[in-house]
């Protein structure tokens, strides 16, 4: 079992603190400008997990004083109908952030949908404009999960410059933007994936491992260098002896020699919605040209 001297990175507590700070800033915004940031979330179909996520986003958006606009569309919604809704939301001055819950029903083109969201309202950070801005080191709206991972790493390790980091996973949602963020922190980054050779040896040389492969228990304990920091993004539901449980991409009970590790659940997961709210506030500030420092000085 994992020894008690391995530090757990408590994403739930960090996210709660971030959300509290965002709520204070939203209150300052209302007092100083009379304006309120607004987030629109679009859900197409009745996928149970997506419905749960959308409900959680709505509740947290409202809880910190932002406006929440939830659009629930039937599964049979056409591409043209969805694009028309996005066009209306792009032009709605009360909406500062737009999120289309993925996955979409199979008949809808997700790439076309993401491309239709105005980049300045793309609080998921998936639009190619934001991806390009991130890749070139400019101000971008950054995908929420890697942004949350970076916050946790900074909080745990402070200055990240010079650290050797292995990112396992190359998706546009986590792996690629995570690597970009870490390079901007002056880390030495290796992006690994299912075709990578000698993956255990790469991990053993790393100061930090970020795992977003969607493969339960992929990273074994003997892959982790003593004292290394491990960020487990994986959320996998597995069945064993008739019992369902959530597990990550790291063999958690084998990681007792890590310096610090995120648990699953309770690690990276809570950061995603917190960073979505943060991105919405960032989009609002950019729209109205209100620096965060100016609000703090009010």
Automatic annotation (TrEMBL):
Its EC number is 1.5.1.5, 3.5.4.9. Residues 9-124 form the Tetrahydrofolate dehydrogenase/cyclohydrolase catalytic domain. Gene3D superfamilies: Leucine Dehydrogenase, chain A, domain 1 (3.40.50.10860), NAD(P)-binding Rossmann-like Domain (3.40.50.720). The keyword Hydrolase applies. Pathway: One-carbon metabolism; tetrahydrofolate interconversion. Residues 143-287 form the Tetrahydrofolate dehydrogenase/cyclohydrolase NAD(P)-binding domain. It catalyses: (6R)-5,10-methenyltetrahydrofolate + H2O = (6R)-10-formyltetrahydrofolate + H(+); (6R)-5,10-methylene-5,6,7,8-tetrahydrofolate + NADP(+) = (6R)-5,10-methenyltetrahydrofolate + NADPH. It holds the Pfam family THF_DHG_CYH. GO terms for biological process: L-histidine biosynthetic process; methionine biosynthetic process; purine nucleotide biosynthetic process; tetrahydrofolate interconversion. GO terms for molecular function: methenyltetrahydrofolate cyclohydrolase activity; methylenetetrahydrofolate dehydrogenase (NADP+) activity. One of its GO terms (cellular component) is cytosol. InterPro entries: Aminoacid_DH-like_N_sf, NAD(P)-bd_dom_sf, THF_DH/CycHdrlase, THF_DH/CycHdrlase_cat_dom, THF_DH/CycHdrlase_CS, THF_DH/CycHdrlase_NAD-bd_dom. The keyword Amino-acid biosynthesis applies. It comes from the Bacteria. NADP(+) binds at residues 169-171, 235. Keywords: Amino-acid biosynthesis, Histidine biosynthesis, Hydrolase, Methionine biosynthesis, Multifunctional enzyme, NADP, One-carbon metabolism, Oxidoreductase, Purine biosynthesis. Catalyzes the oxidation of 5,10-methylenetetrahydrofolate to 5,10-methenyltetrahydrofolate and then the hydrolysis of 5,10-methenyltetrahydrofolate to 10-formyltetrahydrofolate. Belongs to the tetrahydrofolate dehydrogenase/cyclohydrolase family. Homodimer. PANTHER family: C-1-TETRAHYDROFOLATE SYNTHASE, CYTOPLASMIC, C-1-TETRAHYDROFOLATE SYNTHASE, CYTOPLASMIC-RELATED. This is Bifunctional protein FolD. It comes from Paracoccus sulfuroxidans.
């Amino acid at each position: 079992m994992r020894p008690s001297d391995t530090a757990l990175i408590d994403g739930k507590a960090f996210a709660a603190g971030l959300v509290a700070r965002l709520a204070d800033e939203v209150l300052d915004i209302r007092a100083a400008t009379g304006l309120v940031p607004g987030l629109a979330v679009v859900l197409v179909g009745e996928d149970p997990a997506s419905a749960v996520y959308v409900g959680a986003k709505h509740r947290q958006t409202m809880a910190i004083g932002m406006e929440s606009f939830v659009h629930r569309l039937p599964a049979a919604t056409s591409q043209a109908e969805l694009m028309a809704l996005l066009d209306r939301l792009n032009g709605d001055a009360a909406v500062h952030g737009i999120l289309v819950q993925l996955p979409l029903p199979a008949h809808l083109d997700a790439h076309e949908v993401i491309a239709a969201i105005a980049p300045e309202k793309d609080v998921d950070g998936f639009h190619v404009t934001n991806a390009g801005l991130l890749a070139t080191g400019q101000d971008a709206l950054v995908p929420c999960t890697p942004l949350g991972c970076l916050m946790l790493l900074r909080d745990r390790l402070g200055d990240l410059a010079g650290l050797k980091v292995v990112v396992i996973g190359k998706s546009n949602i986590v792996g690629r933007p995570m690597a970009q963020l870490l390079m901007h922190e002056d880390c030495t980054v290796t992006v690994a994936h299912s075709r990578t050779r000698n993956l255990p040896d790469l991990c053993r040389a790393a100061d930090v491992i970020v795992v977003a492969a969607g493969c339960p228990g992929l990273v074994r304990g003997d892959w982790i260098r003593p004292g290394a920091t491990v960020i487990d993004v994986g959320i996998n539901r597995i069945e064993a002896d008739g019992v369902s449980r959530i597990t990550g991409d790291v063999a958690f009970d084998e990681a007792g020699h890590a310096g610090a590790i995120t648990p699953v659940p309770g690690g990276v997961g809570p950061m995603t919605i917190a960073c979505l709210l943060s991105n919405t506030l960032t989009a609002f500030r950019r729209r109205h040209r209100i620096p965060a420092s100016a609000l703090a000085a009010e």
